[in-house]
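Notebook p. 47: complex prediction with S-adenosylmethionine.
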Amino acid sequence: MSVQTSIVAGAPNDSRAMTETDAPPKTPAYAPMLAAYHRAHAAELRAIIATVPLFPSDRVLDLACGDGAHMRWLRERLDDGQVVGVDISEGYLRFAREQIEVADADASAGLCAGAVERLPLGDDSVDLAWCAHSLYSLPDPMVALSELRRVVRPGGHVAVLEQDTLHRFMLPWPAALEIRIHQAQLEALRARPNGPGKYFAGRRLGKLLTDAGLSTCSVRSFCCARAAPLDADERCYLDGLLHDLRQKAGPFLAAADRVAFEALADPASDEYLPRRPDFHATFLDVLAIARVEDERAANRSADGTPPIGRGR
Ligand SMILES: C[S@@+](CC[C@H](N)C(=O)[O-])C[C@H]1O[C@@H](n2cnc3c(N)ncnc32)[C@H](O)[C@@H]1O
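Predicted complex, structure tokens below:
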């Protein structure tokens, strides 16, 4: 696969030659869990992508493309269109490039190093900007949405897929314990430098997009489930989710709650939830699709006031 950069404006494209002394750039610690999630939930994620407005010749940006899984699924919907993935992580870009080469040697897909604060794409350069499960990872979701708005042509779309930290999954916890786990999660997030706001993007995704100056076309929720017996990828993903929850919420639980929680969330425990024969988990995603309006046309129809910029 050649790195396709025709919709990328003057971007450094992570094609830095490796020397013998260079260590390969690392992927984040959560990369194996996320890859397992992509394999285990590929059918559902493809079905979500199938609802996004796309034409076969469209130019598409996948912001914070990570391992490139969404790029491959977006690419499946195109013919002579292009997908460009932008991510700040050199390790992830390298990994994504390997995955895309294996899956689709002929893909018109490009990978590009870039930070969301200033995307390496020109104004109005893509028909669709896609951003999946990343707003909470980005320093400022509003900056990200504003940049997505800038690079999408008037009449094009911004589509954001998100979860909500408190409702990412429903597990068969005792209900009273679950409420205290949520309280502990909230306290853990409050202790973070930017506060908990961006971790709850899922529940107010439409408003986030309209606050960024986009016209929200639709907000849809998608739910899926997994039940015992879990396959290796489903189990890896759940192990990762529970590990993360233990790290974050565990220290904020009262001692007795922590014992009860650990019994259900520690893989070393005989009561570990995902090993139960009657285990059932429900997962929730929210997709918001917004249209980028042609401000020049909108302003022309007003009372003679001059066109306004995109407010970057
Ligand atoms: C949770 S991962 C999601 C990746 C991918 N969208 C997916 O669904 O698998 C978040 C991604 O955001 C990227 N990221 C974090 N901060 C960024 C920034 N300032 N600019 C661009 N990408 C960033 C990370 O490198 C990572 O790939």
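Notes: Residues 34, 64-67, 69-70, 87-89, 92, 115-116, 132-134, 137-139 surround S-adenosylmethionine (CB under 6 Å). The chain has a mean pLDDT of 88.
Next step: compare against the earlier run before touching the bench.
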